Amino acid sequence: MQHNPICQLFSIRYPIIQAGMIWASGWKLASAVSNAGGLGLLGAGSMYPEVLREHIQKCKAATDKHFGVNLPLLYPDIDKHVQIIIEEKVPIVFTSAGNPKTWTALLKQHGIKVVHVVSSSKFAGKAQEAGCDAVVAEGFEAGGHNGREETTTMVLIPAVVKAVTIPVIAAGGIATGAQMAAALCLGASGVQVGSRFVATPEASSHLAFKEAVVNAGEGDTLLSLKQLTPVRLLKNKFFNEVYEAETRGATKEELAQLLGRARAKKGMFEGDLEEGELEIGQVSALIKEIKPAGEIVEELWQQCRATFQSFKQIME
Q1: Exposed (0-12), middle (13-18) or buried (19+): which is 290, by Cβ within 10 Å?
Q2: Closest Cα to residue 199, out of 290, 277, 111, 266?
Q3: Residue 134: domain span
Q4: pTM of the model
């Protein structure tokens, strides 16, 4: 893939990025993906600053390939995170959930490649203006922080590709090589995959949550908490409480009180499938087994190539 702009930008073999998910993307997962030829990301959103430093150092010891950090810009100790990233000479940072102008210039001054996650063409343009090297265009299907516009990946990718000149990475609803091929056909230069990498031995998520993802079916997730920060949740007791509150018109303050503290940790890291917040994408309905991260990277790429080959035969 020497001519692929994402492979060139990150010095990786395959244009496959593992999303930096909270309570899932630790050093074991990130290093496994990078060792397999993709780009592994540490999820800083669920790490205290010194925990992030520890994961960066362990990732360095586990791989000689490039890896990065996903940095939610709303994190309260973000200045400490940024300082640690600079001190540890992390080569790549993916920012999300905030204004890319805040930290991009400083990170780039230290030779760090910066990518920002967006949910619209408008914000993609702002990321380009801020000096980002690429954008992740994340569709409505995704888990985690999502766009209020509810634009699907199939619509979002070509719109963002048209709006910017920097490389576009597709995200949201991608767990198979055929879906990856579709994203590339829409103009993306690579894909970011989240939910599929949750169901791996290397993910730091609780086994009960991984099994819940594998057992999920169509319609088992819904975009929620749009008044706070939109996230796609797997339906459970906590989700039902949120849905009931939103249906009766609960205020932003009421929803924040219902969410409380450490709700995501309770669900995804501690395995409380009733009271915990279970963030996962729609594509969980297609995930049927827990599989090593390296195998997923290779499978995605081989399926993607096979898909293009089959279309070549059909079109001839």
Answers
A1: middle
A2: 290
A3: 5-204+284-315
A4: 0.95
